[in-house]
Design a protein that fits this description.
Layout lengths: L2 E7 L1 H4 L2 H13 L4 E5 L2 H10 L5 E3 L2 E3 L2 H25 L4 E4 L7 E5 L3 E4 L5 E4 L5 E6 L1 H9 L3 E4 L2 E3 L5 E3 L2 H12 L4 E8 L17 E2 L1 H9 L7 H13 L4 E6 L9 E3 L1
Helix pairs in contact: 3-4, 5-6, 6-8
Length: 265
């Protein structure tokens, strides 16, 4: 099977010119077929503020009402996505920007209100609005364009099949894309962010946990080593492994060669 690399990069990296340029240089150097999945939350928050729209985050997830949906569509599917595509073209990469609605790549449903544990330990019923939980992905369609030498650049937007776009977590988009392509390629999924990997001590970049599996993940959650937004990231990674993705790595955005960071297995 031909090797394929799916890279997920956070908004903080793609929204700053210096870090974006380094990322694109490193991404372009990856041999073989590849896919880039990006965020863009800080830009969405900034534009929303300029438009007088309040941003609400609960448990690390953005509450997306109708006004915020318009903002994230403009930012994720437009400004951030097309800037990356244009700059990849300048690097000699024939990139194609996609949301989940394009080619019916990722179909989802609107998330139902759910109980969320708040910072004070209490639980609250939260309606996240126009947020999508994934139902299906068109791996065959993606595989066909990749085989033509095209590099998909995936924005964190999906659709419900009824005409509505939905805001969907970029880590979920990356995991879904990797799983959908696993029947067609030997897939490595790399989640990148600003740290060297999953850390035992958040203040010590040298405390990278080299390997995490289901058993150790439960232990790290129980003792408080792994908390917050890292929990759904690792959950997505473990689900990807179970679905046939060959390897998942969590690492720094400057280390996307697959030789550094935390390996999820």
């Amino acid at each position: 099977m031909k090797k394929l690399t799916v890279i997920k990069v956070g908004g903080k990296i793609v929204e700053e010119e210096d870090t974006l340029q380094q990322l694109l240089k490193n991404f372009s150097a990856i041999e073989g077929p590849k896919v880039l999945v990006h965020g863009g939350g800080r830009s969405a928050t900034k534009l929303a503020a300029q438009l007088g729209i309040e941003s609400t985050m609960i448990d690390g997830r953005r509450v997306t009402d109708a006004d915020m949906l318009r903002v994230v569509t403009m930012v994720y599917g437009g400004l951030v996505n097309k800037n990356i595509v244009a700059q990849l073209q300048a690097c000699g990469i024939n990139a194609l920007g996609l949301t989940g609605a394009d080619m019916n790549v990722i179909l989802s449903h609107r998330r139902k209100p759910k109980n969320v544990k708040m910072a004070d330990g209490t639980e609250q019923m939260v309606d996240f609005g126009y947020v999508g939980d994934v139902d299906a992905a068109n791996g065959e369609g993606l595989a066909k364009i990749i085989e033509q030498g095209i590099t998909p650049v995936m924005a964190p937007l999906t659709h419900d099949g009824k005409g509505s776009l939905l805001n969907t977590n970029a880590d979920t988009i990356a995991g879904t894309t990797a799983k959908a392509l696993a029947p067609f390629f030997d897939v490595t999924l790399i989640y990148t962010f600003e740290h060297a990997g999953v850390l035992r001590n958040a203040d010590d970049e040298g405390s990278v946990i080299p390997h995490i599996d289901n058993r150790s993940f439960e232990q790290y959650k129980a003792d408080g080593t792994i908390t917050g937004g890292m929990i759904p990231k690792i959950e997505n990674a473990l689900e990807a492994i179970a679905a046939g993705v060959r390897r998942v790595i969590i690492t720094h955005a400057n280390a996307i060669d697959g030789n550094h960071g935390t390996i999820i297995e």
